[in-house]
Amino acid sequence: MLRLLGRICVVCVAGAFITVVALQYARILGKNIALAHELGGVSDDIRMLQTKRILQQREIRRLSDPAGAIPEIHDRLHLVTDREAIIYLKKHDQRRDGP
User: What is the percentage of the chain residues whose pLDDT exceeds 70?
Assistant: First the structure.
């Protein structure tokens, strides 16, 4: 009887030890999977920001060049909403209207 109780005790202790170790491994694996997923998201964000930076640098170079900025300014000056209209005013030259 004492031998049976000793064996049951050893099996319970070994089972508890194996359960604790398995739970720790499961927790660590879950954390690693979550971190890998987060790292993938960060990598995607980095690629997106690098692409955005490249596009912004191209835009800056284009707008720094007067030949590239003029069409942009021209387009912005002609933007109107539905209830607006563009009115062009011709500058009156006073020297021609002289005496």
Answer: 91
